[in-house]
Amino acid sequence: MQFSQFALLVAAAALAAAGADECGSPADTLCVRSCAYEELAVWDHGFSGDLHIHFETEVDTWNVDVAFDHELQTFNQWAYPASTSDHRVFSLSNNPWDGHHNANTTLTISFNAHYADNMATPMVYSVKLDGQEKCVVP
C-alpha cells in the first residue's frame, strides 16, 4: 500500500470514529455538521434546503424554530403552518393530523427562500425542536 492510500484510510477511520453522526465537512456550519440542515441549491437571490428534525422521544405535537443570520424576503414550505415576526426566525408547527412521531424518527421539511439583491446567501444558524437546539455536534 502506498503512503497516500494509507493516509486516506487513516483519515477516513479518524472521521468515522470522531463523529459517525456528523454531516458535511469541518468547514460547514454547525447546523450542517449536525445534520439538522442541508443546503440543496443556491441561485441568484434564493436557495433551497431541507431541515432534518430528529425526534428522540415520541411526540404528539411539535414546534420547530429555524433562524437565519440575515433577513429573508420569503420563506416557502408547503406542509406546515409557519409564522415570523422578523423574517429571520420562522416557527413551524404540526398540523392537527400529523403531530405524532415515534421515537428515533426524522421529519424532513423542504423549503425555498429568497433574499435581497445586496445580501450574501443567508445561513441557517439555529434549528430548535420544542425549544431544544438541534444544531449541536456531539
UniProtKB/TrEMBL annotation:
A single GO BP annotation from the record?
Answer: carbohydrate metabolic process
Q: What range does the record give for the signal peptide?
A: 1-20
Any GO MF annotation of the entry: hydrolase activity, hydrolyzing O-glycosyl compounds
Task: Enumerate the InterPro entries for this protein.
Answer: CBD2, CBM2/CBM3_carb-bd_dom_sf, CBM2_carb-bd_dom_sf
Keywords of the record, alphabetical order, are: Signal
Keyword Signal on this protein?
yes
Q: Which residues form the CBM2 domain?
A: 35-127
Keyword Signal assigned to the entry: answer is yes
This chain belongs to which protein, by name?
Answer: CBM2 domain-containing protein
Task: Give the species.
Answer: Amphibalanus amphitrite
